[in-house]
Write a structure and sequence with these properties.
alpha+beta; Rossmann fold; Dna Ligase, domain 1; D-amino Acid Aminotransferase, Chain A, domain 1; eight-stranded antiparallel sheet; five-stranded parallel sheet
């Protein structure tokens, strides 16, 4: 097992990894920008190294600085966390070349799944259902028109190297296709430095279902059930729950087993998530995330498994602790992502925390690096906390979530706590009757 792990991230996820390491007897190294010198993960780590000024490109995306920090502190391994370098195949490769262990999948698997066209072809060959669409990238508007006529409108044009909703445009008819195609390519180039796009059939009322997976270096793979991540704004998840209120037991078992079989046949190492759109009883693969997910917490709550601990064990070469029959699903869990944003305009709201009181009680968990007096910097993602609750069933979970949101207080800045209090009181959410377009439509009506 590792003796010292460098955590190449910040905020609540850096703190989450630190906690898992310390419970395993592993020392931690925090890297940080000058803006994060007083961050909680820096305060609690065994060692810390400043790797640059506030802009991410000069600090958390600065590969030479991260590798130097690992070298001078004598770290055995580097955990990339979520975002930043977590799905950068070149970084993973350089980590291994410099004699450290990358706590994540192989660079090869990151590359395969990082290119959406290659990923779709790979999983299709392994038996996963995919959304009808182009076989690869689309080079011209004329080609786009031909594919659209074949699969039928509306269509979705997506960046091949994309993620986070960037480089995605809907064309509802032939007249709107040229503009959507050009806009998607322009956004893709600006966001990813790659303007390749592909096309899929646009589904009108799908749910976003993802399966939490874990594989080791010994040919073993298991799943930890599915999560429903359909409550989204601009393709960014807002609320997630497990299990999905939209699936029955047979569908749940089938999609979990199928996804686990795929990563087993791939020889995949570490945690990962295969994501699907689900509509009218059918699943369609959309992408695989080759990293830990923000919402891994709700899978932990319904299984009792520490996924970060298992991720670290697998990276160290150990076999899985669990066989599939050992994983028992218990109750229901919901996560709310709390952002430092105005709850109506979604304008970022950095600033100093003046009064912080997280909720508590049975089966209530808050993952956050906030503390009273902490200054939320303006340079990074606006998510500042995750509220996760668990109940013996969905109704109990909803009641506990309502109570926890009422208790949660973050003063000094605007947050999305009021939005979450409103959303979970909506009849559609209470009934589990929503899809990936529901939140956008709800906000448009307000």
């Amino acid at each position: 097992m590792f003796e010292k792990v460098l955590i190449a991230n910040r905020g609540e996820i850096a703190l989450r990894i630190h906690r898992a390491c310390h419970e395993m007897g592993i020392q931690t190294v925090a890297v940080h920008s000058t803006a994060d010198a007083d961050a909680m993960h820096v305060r609690l780590a065994d060692e810390s190294v400043c790797i640059g000024p506030p802009p991410s490109k000069s600090s958390y995306l600065n590969i030479p600085a991260i590798l130097t920090a690992a070298s001078i502190t004598g770290a055995d391994a580097i955990h990339p966390g979520i975002g930043f370098m977590s799905e950068n195949a070149n970084f993973a490769e350089m980590v291994e070349q410099h004699g450290f262990t990358f706590i994540g999948p192989t660079p090869e698997h990151i590359r395969i799944m990082g290119d959406k066209v290659t990923a779709k072809k790979t999983v299709k060959d392994l038996g996963l259902p995919t959304v009808p669409g182009s076989d690869g990238g689309i080079a011209t508007v004329e080609e786009a028109k031909s594919v659209a006529e074949d699969i039928g409108y509306p269509v979705l044009i997506k960046a091949a190297a994309g993620g986070g909703g960037k480089g995605m445009k809907v064309a509802r008819d032939a007249a709107g296709l040229p503009e959507a195609y050009q806009l998607a390519r322009s956004e893709a180039m600006a966001a990813f430095g790659n303007d390749e796009v592909y096309m899929e059939k646009y589904l009108e009322k799908p749910r976003h279902i993802e399966v939490q997976l874990l594989g080791d270096m010994h040919g073993n793979a298991v799943h930890f059930g599915e999560r429903d991540c359909s409550i989204q704004r601009r393709h960014q998840k807002v609320i997630e729950e497990a299990p999905s209120p939209g699936l029955n037991a047979t569908e749940r078992e089938q999609i979990g087993a199928l996804a686990a079989d795929v990563i087993r046949r791939l020889g995949y190492r570490g945690v990962g998530t295969i994501e699907f759109l689900y509509e009218n009883g059918r699943f369609y693969f959309i992408e695989m995330n080759t990293r830990l997910q923000i919402e891994h917490t709700i899978s932990e709550m319904i299984t009792g498994v520490d996924l970060v601990r298992e991720q670290i064990r697998v990276a160290a070469g150990l076999p899985l602790t669990y066989k599939q029959e050992d994983i028992v699903f218990n109750g229901h869990s919901i996560e709310c992502r709390i952002n430092a944003e105005n709850p109506e305009t979604f304008t970022p709201s950095p600033g100093q925390i003046q009064g912080y009181h997280p909720p508590g009680g049975l089966d209530v968990r808050v993952d956050s690096a906030l503390y009273d007096g902490y200054r939320v910097p303006p340079h990074y993602d606006s998510m500042i906390a995750k509220l996760i609750v668990h109940g013996t069933n969905r109704n109990e979970c909803l009641l506990r979530l309502r109570r926890a949101l009422e208790e949660f207080h973050i003063g000094g800045i605007d947050t999305t706590l009021p939005l979450h209090r409103t959303l979970i009181a909506q009849p559609d959410f209470i009934n589990g009757d929503y899809d990936i377009h529901w939140l956008e439509k709800y906000l448009a009506r307000k």
